[in-house]
Amino acid sequence: MGSRVKILLATRNPGKVREIGAILGDLDINVVSLADFPDVPEVVEDGTTFFENAYKKAKEVSEATGMMVLSDDSGLEVDALGGRPGVYSARYSGKEGDDAANNAKLLKELEGVPEEKRTARFKCVMVLYHPSGKWISAEGTCEGRIALKPAGSGGFGYDPIFYMEQYGKTMAELPPEEKNRISHRAEALKALKRRLREFLASL
After folding, report:
1. Would you say 75 and 49 are in contact if contact means Cβ atoms under 8 Å apart?
2. What is the pLDDT of residues 126-157, one digit of tens each?
3. Is 73 in the active site?
4. 10 Å Cβ neighbour count for 69?
5. In CATH, 5-202 is 1.10.287.110
6. What gap in Å lies between CA 147 and CA 31, rounded to an integer?
7. Domain map of the chain by residue range?
8. Are residues 67 and 60 in contact, defined by beta-carbon separation less than 8 angstroms?
9. I need a surface site. Which of 21, 75, 129, 161 has the fewest CB within 10 A?
């Protein structure tokens, strides 16, 4: 294996590629994305947990490309809703990726629930899968609560209604660099990074 390791990120999102590439930047790793592999089919994320979806995505993309693949699955868990929307976060309102509709549905379901019972967390699970079949995983969480109404124009998804007590702001009101430092994805990536050298040495 050459000195510079190439990892394929199972996403076509350039922002996510930049963010992950920056965090892994000191490890002499070349991060590429599915934007470079237009023929790789979309993976159906039909798992019941974040891990199942992340593992399936990493494994299938690795098998399709013969490369080492890093994938993640993430979402929002609301305690008052028994952990929903969970793995259905991106399509909670029934339409994939309609952030405004997802937020509106969630706020409606929490009508009348007092602030102290609106606790929630963003959770992210990452899986790094090697074509040999070896893999490692890590997860990260970011605790907060669901605000009474949206605030802020940054971020995406549930960020405008995810209130963080220690900042007195929703995640959508935080500067991007601050969000990237404390987010569930950053926490998962930092945890994975701590195990990465050992994993690469074992291949």
Report:
1. no
2. 999 999 999 999 999 999 999 999 999 988 89
3. yes
4. 26
5. no
6. 36
7. 5-202
8. no
9. 21
